[in-house]
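Example protein
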Amino acid sequence: MENQSDEARSAFLYIKIIAPSGKQVNAISTPRHAVARGKSVEFEQDIAAPSPDRWDRNRPAMYHAVVCGPSDPGYEAAARQPPQTLYADWTPANLASHSENVEVYSNCPDVELSLNGKSLGAKSLGAKPLPADASPRTWRAAFEPGVIRAICKNGPSEELRTAGKAAKIELKAGREKLTPEWDEVSYVTAEVTDEAGMVTPSASNGVTFQITGPGAVAAVDNADSASHEPFQGLERRAFQGRGMAVIRATGAKGRITVSASSAGLATGSVTIEAVGK
């Protein structure tokens, strides 16, 4: 990193796929970054970033943001429902041949888009500054399963992949150590993935959480604002491939093991250290 220019160190790049007009698409969501904004809810997922609150200060970074449409389940008049956006993967609900609108947001002067190794063309700012409205560079791409990649010349790259059939559950703990303080918890994200570890966005499997050791499941969630499932319990359906359990320590020192299982899927587990008072 020491040999990179200041321009390369501050470069950023991210991709999003816009659903064609009139096409119903589910948005990918990440429960741990939910922010209510009027009648819409935005869920953000940071990718390859040093931390959620650092953007392009010290090194190249690639970012996705995952945006859900209206927070009500479609009760608004059609004219007032903003188009929904699907990205953080290259797995649309319709896997047949069709066109997708691809937007790339970047401060790099030159960005090239490729699909499965074949260039879809490069777009350059030339000597122009970044647009004042931070508008993206856009491509129209014929969908085919595989890898779509945006490449910043002399900077970072970002790629989205097509997910395969759901095969397993992977767990990720937001905190690896817990004290029994009342306001200290670890958000454990459950992801339904294919064999390669890609989240399967169509997955809605019922997930059962189990815990051993000095801990307890305080709540479960999946970021589905239309769900009527209870927050307290050990079960929750995955919403677009993801769910979450909130874990707390119960006082004693030891190892808390959280597991998540679902019929037909390989069970996932993660360990959290309870450090006591």
Observations:
- The radius of gyration is 20 Å.
- The mean pLDDT is 76.
- The first helix runs from residue 6 to 9.
- Helices lie at 6-9.
